[in-house]
Fold each of these.
Amino acid sequence: MASKVYFTDFRTYGKESLPHKLQRLIRAAGIGDIEMNKQFVAIKIHFGEPGNLSYLRPQYARAVAEVVKEQGGLPFLTDCNTLYRGKRKNALDHLEAAAENGFNPATTGCQILIADGLKGTDEVLIDLPDGEYVKQAKVGRALMDADILISLNHFKGHEATGFGGALKNIGMGGGSRAGKMEQHNSGKPQVNQKKCVGCHGCERACGQDAVAFGPDGKARILEDKCVGCGRCLGACNFDAVYNANGHANEILDYKIAEYAAAICRGRPHFHISLIVDVSPQCDCHAENDAPILPNIGMLASFDPVALDEACADLCNAQQPLPGTLLWDAMARPDFTDHRDHFTNTAPVTDWHFTQIHAEKLGLGSREYELIRLK
Ligand code: SF4
Ligand code: SF4
């Protein structure tokens, strides 16, 4: 059965602010049907790696928190620590990064909790009897302690999963450090020495010091240090970094779907995505390349699978923006058109795997009805 997905664009007609428009959207989508009185409500968000400017602004988080409080709920913003080194690898750094990017109780109207604690080890183990790749998900405790889950997601490209949508925000983002390791452990990349030009882009992207250079100036991956996060794949503009396990990204997609199912099941959940500043790579990067697509709008649904499907379809209906990574990729002589902006940007990805698997797990439907609000 088709799920309802509510959509509105970024037009304001000079009378309604975007945060107020977001509130109108989520009310229309039925957030008011969730009984929130005195319930803890986790708003799962990505605070953005410092240096990246495409993460969602705190004003959107505040807008959602205000609606939760109106309904009697007790909201908090949350995310888990990262697997790789960077500025969000433990709770202290993570809180500082959130503050640097403008998230604090004064700006968002609620507190911030790093879900998997100081060192990324405060986790809840969730049995997943129907998991094909994960039998016990390892999830940040605060995220699971919440009575209600709201995903507030920046919809953008991703170098390993095609796009970063609701399922990835919850599944990968909700994993503790061990959980992230489990999702990423399907393969470590290698460098095609013939293609490598020695530009050091992969080295700059790697948070693990896992890239070394030989006397010939070519990169190679140090397997003992590499955690398989895939950031170097997106950082290489010469397609020299590849995953020797041809199914690694596919398995990652399946695991993300299974983690998302483990995190959502058994409690009310609601999902919001904003297609804005559609950078080709994740907000985990300490920089954001130019958006590959125009700003499209805001979407909300009770169904994260339908929501991601609708976001992808809306993106694929747009023309790529000139002077971007996608535009450059399309101009290459060896370009193969996958008829999908995200796979064309990162040809090693196919986001459909996540969607198909999440639907199989009963997390939602890939069929949707798009309800447009002015
Ligand atoms: S980014 Fe690519 S081309 Fe540049 S050093 Fe790394 S593997 Fe080589
Ligand atoms: S996958 Fe690439 S970026 Fe990630 S740890 Fe390994 S070498 Fe570094």
Amino acid sequence: MPETSSVLTGKCMCGAVEYAVDDAFEYSMNCHCSNCRRTTGSAFKPFAGIRRERLRVVKGDGAALIYGNGDDAHDVHCSTCGSLLYSVVREGAYVHVTMGTLVDAPTIRPSGHIFVGSKAPWYEITDDLPQYREFPED
Ligand SMILES: [Zn+2]
Ligand SMILES: [Zn+2]
């Protein structure tokens, strides 16, 4: 794949941690699972997936708080303000960037809702994107 993508910046609420990620996300979804709802305090978490090496922490690497198994799947928060910046997933090969922490707008848009089977009963999905009880079939 040609290296033509631009680079997006993201940061936590307090600004202690900043990252740079290529604007080349492979997929994007709104996740309604209870973990994503709790960690963001929101009805769902819009996230975008990309290979891990295409994201770099450019400021405050030492200020990052790892939740989970640092050698395997884990979430990366700012240890000062608590923002969830991204999650390392899929045997460490991918990151799921929490789109609310992006400063710059990515090209990709969420293409569906996942884990709708556990969504908050007080939130009604009002768009026409496909809905999946858990993950899409393929
Ligand atoms: Zn912070
Ligand atoms: Zn989730």
